[in-house]
Amino acid sequence: MKTLIRNDNRLFLAGGLIFIFCLAMAAFTGKFLIITIPFLLLVFIAGWQFREILFLALLFSLPFSAEYSFSARLGTDLPDEPLMWLTSFIVTGSVLYNPADLKRKYLLHPLSVIFFILLLWIIGDSIFSAEPETSVKFLLAKGWYVLAFFVAPTAFSAKEGGY
Predict the structure, then answer these.
(1) What is the pTM of this model?
(2) In sequence order, which ranges of the chain are alpha helices (DSSP H)?
(3) pLDDT tens string for the chain (163 positions)?
């Protein structure tokens, strides 16, 4: 029991030091968004620990999302797109950490193969595009959709049948 308390104290101390460091950097540089780093780290850790809940939260947030424009050229859908980004980062880390999470029978399914061919086509179009900025934005948007809604259900499923 004492080792558990010591480990918890070490984690709490590490989190506190990260927060104090980010607070000092924010005060020193005047960029106060740096303070959000420890909280984003906590959200990432929680998403890593509870992947299935993160995916279900993403699914349940879809009907309630609304578009929010930061400027005339930059907009996003809240709350689903930040959850998609988080799910994409978590599924990428999960697959890199444990490649066996991806079930081979799903990846070799004929629909999956056709889907991957379509992705290769989009990548080829982006490389040879007349407007590379727009093409890369489109490719990134499709990338996090693919990771969040195609790869994540396969990688995060607890049982063999998937979601």
Answers:
(1) 0.77
(2) 2-29, 36-49, 51-61, 80-97, 104-107, 110-127, 132-146, 152-156
(3) 455 456 668 888 888 999 999 999 999 999 999 999 999 999 888 899 999 899 999 999 999 999 988 888 878 888 999 999 999 999 999 889 988 888 888 888 999 999 999 989 988 988 898 998 888 888 888 888 999 999 998 888 755 554 4
Nearest to residue 84, comparing CAs of 52, 55, 53, 60?
55
Distance between CA atoms of 33 and 37, rounded to whole angstroms? 8
Nearest C-alpha neighbor of 81 from the set 99, 67, 94, 98: 67
Query: Partners of 75 in the beta sheet?
Result: 69
- Tell me the backbone φ, ψ of residue 131, rounded to 5 degrees: -120, 85
Distance between CA 120 and CA 104 in Å, rounded? 19
Find the length of the chain: 163
CA distances from 136 to 15, 41, 87 (A): 36, 27, 20
Burial class of residue 135 (count of CB atoms within 10 Å of its CB; 0-12, 13-18, 19+) = middle
